[in-house]
Structure formats: C-alpha cells, structure tokens
Design goal:
This protein has about 350 residues and is α/β, with parallel strands linked by helices. About 35% of the residues lie in helices and about 15% in strands. The protein binds pyridoxal-5'-phosphate (PLP). The site of pyridoxal-5'-phosphate has 12 residues, from helix 3.
C-alpha cells in the first residue's frame, strides 16, 4: 500500500512523475536507450534542459531579464555562491534576515566573504516567529531572506521593500504559492523539497546584477559562466533535472501555481484547524507566521506519545517526526501531498 508521505525532504512527488521517471530510466522517449546512458549534449537531453529552464520562467511569469540555472551542490552551495557573486571583494556588505537554521547557515557562509549584518533575528525566541520590524538601506549590496523555514514551520507571508538587491532561499516553498517573483533579483531552491528529487538546485537570477564584485571567481562558482553555457558548463545532474521537469509539467497541467496554492491552503487549513481545536496539540510557532508547507507541532501531553506514534504509523503515515533539532512532529504538506492524506492524519489526531 502506498503510504501517506509527510516527509520534509526528499519528499513526495506526483505518482505520475515517479512512473514517467521510471520509464525514462529504462527507455527514454522510445530511443532504445536509458536517460542515464545518453550524453548530456545529445539532442534529447538538451531539449530536456531547454524546456526545464523555459517552464520555470513561464510558471514564475518572468521575462528575459532573468536566467534559469540547474546546478549541483544543493541549496548549501548557494549559501556560498550568492556572496561570491554579489559581494564586492573589498567592501562587501550584506543584510541577512535570521529566521532559522537554514538562514543561519547562509549567514555563516557569507561571513567568510564579507561583512554581514544580521538585520533582524528571532533566534532568542527559538525562531518561533518571523521578524518584521527592520529596514534595509542602500549601503548593502543585497538583502537575503528565507521564504519558508522548513524546520520551525514559519513562512514569510509578505516580503519587505528593500533599497538593495533581494535574494531569497525558497527551497521549501518554491512553486507552492503565487508571488511576484519579479520583486526578487536572485532566487534559489534545492529541488528536493517541492520541485523534484535531491541532486539539483534551481537558481533564477537577474542577469544585470552579475559581474560587479571585482572577484576572480572559481569557474564553477560563477553564475555568468553557467549562464553562458546554458546550464551545461559541466555535466549537469541529468536525472534530477529530468524529474524536476516532469514535476513542473505536472504542475503546469494542473492549473499552475495558482491552483497549487489553493490546494495547499485547503490542506494547511484542515490541519491547523484540528491543531487549534484539539487540546492535545499545539503548533511550535506563532499563528500569524504559520507555514503552509511545513506544520511543526507538539503533543501537549507527552503520555499520549506512544499511542499517537503507534496510531499514525498504523494509518500508513510516513515521515511525521520533527527535525532532530526540534523534536515533536512536522507534517510537510508539499504540492504532491493530497488533501486525503491530510484527512487521514487529522482522523488519527481526533481519535487519540
Ligand atoms: C533543505 C534546505 C536547505 C539545504 O538544502 P540542501 O540542498 O540540502 O543544501 C536550505 N534552505 C532551506 C530553506 C531548506 O529547506
């Protein structure tokens, strides 16, 4: 029996995508070869990469000022590439918003390359909320934020107006809700949370912001090189790119981001309503910053833990344990998770 998969990442993808990916591993496009054994320079794979880059721009409604890249190294490498490409060598200065473990990881890397001001942080309150009271002036080379905090279950509902470049780590809520993506100068996302399998990272960047740091960048770290080579500077992660393409095609076919957002709101509402109604459960974070994607919650009565754990496992639920740094529970409600799966979880919560 297929489980109800609430895993935080790598995570659930559409069932149809798993089937098509499996087919492509055996025989890609009926060419008598596996996707895994053909050259990344073959016309069949070049078409995959071209369409993957094009569909991202279509879904995000971005014009040709933007370039789309599929890179290796995870979102973690973007923690490094962003300051390398946007912070001038000598006088670099960036503003970072500290909203959780991943934001803190990005800050740590940027500090190695220039001056970083943590413009606001909720660390002292265990990242239970998103700070909103700050301004970012034009003395900064860029502002960096994390749209969704995968571990703590908080999400930025609005983005600040800043007087500098806007950079965002959207790893765990990319393509989950409508945003004006043209407000951002650089967006990155590890695929494995809502877009595809592990092994590839999406980067969307406004071309004109690049090449201004005076740094002699190592080749792989230079976005301009990847842009010039159409995301084929070196061998790209062919399989993760293909599976990401299938996932995005599935999204486009099913109403795009607008329709996904509606489904995601309905799923989150169903679960948060139960948490609010049921005295046995409470969310980790404050109500106004609750994430639509990752719902982190606790039992208020630890003596029920054994019974609850047994019940959700018996109901065919997978991946409900909270992040190891936080404990408790985390239900990740990524695009491919159905409302029916959330209902199964809610039924278990009601019965406990
Ligand atoms: C998972 C995650 C990361 C780290 O991604 P990797 O691809 O494993 O490097 C970074 N930022 C956010 C918001 C995440 O959820």
């Amino acid at each position: 029996m297929k489980k109800h998969n609430f895993s935080a990442g790598p995570c659930i993808l559409p069932q149809e995508v798993f089937h098509k990916s499996a087919e492509a591993v055996l025989d890609f496009n009926g060419i008598g070869l596996s996707l895994l054994e053909i050259s990344h320079r073959s016309k069949d794979f070049v078409a995959v990469m071209d369409e993957a880059r094009a569909i991202v721009k279509r879904l995000m409604n971005l014009n040709d000022d933007y370039e789309v890249l599929f890179l290796g190294g995870g979102a973690s490498l973007q923690f490094v590439m962003v300051p390398f490409n946007l912070m001038p060598e000598l006088s670099g200065k960036a503003a970072y918003l500290d909203t959780g473990t991943w934001a803190a990881g990005a800050i740590k890397e940027a500090q190695k390359l220039g001056h970083v001001d943590v413009i606001a942080s909720s660390k002292e309150d265990r990242y239970r909320y998103i700070p909103k009271d700050y301004t970012v002036n034009s003395t900064y080379d860029y502002f960096h934020c994390t749209s969704n905090n995968t571990i703590y279950g908080t999400q930025m509902k609005t983005f600040p107006e800043v007087d500098t470049l806007m950079v965002c780590d959207m790893s765990s809520d990319i393509f989950s809700r409508q945003l004006d993506f043209s407000k951002f100068d650089l967006i990155y996302a590890g695929a494995q949370k809502n877009m595809g399998p592990a092994g590839v990272t999406l980067v969307v960047v406004k071309k004109e912001i690049l090449g201004k740091t005076g740094r002699n960048l190592p080749s792989y770290l230079d976005y301009r090189l990847h842009i010039a080579k159409e995301s084929m500077f070196n061998t790209p992660p062919v399989f993760p790119v293909y599976v990401s393409l299938l996932t995005l095609q599935h999204l486009e076919k099913n109403g795009g981001i607008a329709a996904a957002e509606k489904r995601n709101q309905a799923k989150a509402q169903l679960l948060y309503d139960e948490i609010d109604r049921n005295p046995l459960f409470q969310t980790f974070c404050v109500e106004e910053d609750r994430s639509l994607m990752n719902v982190s919650f606790n039992l208020t009565d630890e003596s029920k833990k054994e019974a609850f754990d047994k019940a959700w496992k018996e109901a065919g639920i997978n991946g409900l344990n909270g992040h190891r740094s936080l404990g408790g529970y985390r239900a990740s409600l990524y695009n491919a998770l159905s409302l029916e799966s959330v209902q199964v979880l809610v039924d278990v919560m009601r019965a406990i």
